[in-house]
Write a structure and sequence with these properties.
Keywords: Copper. InterPro entries: SCO1/SenC (IPR003782), Thioredoxin-like_sf (IPR036249), Thioredoxin_domain (IPR013766). This is SCO family protein. It is a single chain. The chain is an alpha/beta fold. The protein has one domain (2-205): Glutaredoxin. It has six helices and nine strands. The protein has helices at 2-18, 64-67, 84-101, 120-130, 141-150, 192-205, and strands at 53-55, 61-63, 72-77, 107-112, 135-137, 155-157, 167-169, 173-177, 181-186. A five-stranded mixed sheet has the order 5-4-3-8-9. It has a two-stranded antiparallel ribbon with strand order 1-2. It has a two-stranded antiparallel ribbon with strand order 6-7. A hairpin with a 5-residue loop joins strand 1 (53-55) and strand 2. The chain is globular. Residues 1-9 and 11-28 have low confidence and may be disordered.
């Protein structure tokens, strides 16, 4: 219980730290997605996201171009996460189903920040159990670090005497569009219906 409390508290603090990457301002009139955004992004959307190279559930090397083939909701977490990741990824999966009911095809993507334990098979099973369309990705420590840095996320494994260590990490979900790249982030408190509303707005504006 102490470990769980520490993890939850640590994630909350890190989420707040991650929020420093963003600022809330008025929409840019030249931005065709302005009507969909909940706030502007420091440095512009181009400051977040970009190319990555990771391993899929089959252990095959894939790039962002291979993965982001339709509007995608990207989340960085780890499969051994006791509380936050299951809730966040389940929310993302539910939003994908709501969007499907509305006629929008989207893909949930889960990128592990725990490459030591999250093998391709482990990540693949975790992702599929959450949603049949969810893509699970992992990689070498260097590959994971590069992807995390591209999306301005934070993660750090906590010291432990066994394999049951916790990993502090930021908890944003990212909407990424083919050809457009990153366009919007979602905080943990955003519900699946609200997420679906925003995602559909971006898709309509493409």
């Amino acid at each position: 219980m102490q470990k769980l409390a520490a993890a939850s508290g640590g994630v909350a603090i890190l989420a707040l730290m991650g929020a420093m990457y963003y600022v809330t301002m008025g929409p840019d009139s030249d931005d065709r997605f302005a009507g969909c955004r909940s706030g502007a992004i420091a440095g512009g959307p181009g400051a977040i996201g970009g190319p990555f190279e990771l391993l899929d559930a089959n252990g095959q090397t894939v790039t962002d171009a291979d993965v982001i083939t339709e509007p995608s909701i990207v989340y960085f977490g780890y499969t051994f996460c006791p509380d936050v990741c299951p809730l966040d990824t389940a929310r993302n999966a539910e939003a994908v189903d709501i969007l499907a009911d509305r006629g929008y095809s989207t893909t949930p993507v889960f990128i592990s920040v725990d490459p030591e334990r999250d093998t391709p098979e482990v990540v693949g099973d975790f992702a599929y159990n959450l949603h049949e369309k969810m893509i699970g990705l992992t990689g070498s420590p260097e590959q994971v670090k590069a992807a995390s840095q591209a999306y301005k996320t934070y993660y750090k494994a906590q010291p432990a005497e066994d394999e049951y260590y916790l990993v502090d990490h930021s908890t944003f979900s990212y909407l990424v569009l083919p050809e457009e790249g990153f366009v919007q982030y979602f905080r943990r408190e955003v519900g699946p219906e609200q997420m679906a509303d925003q995602v559909s707005c971006f898709i309509d504006a493409m």
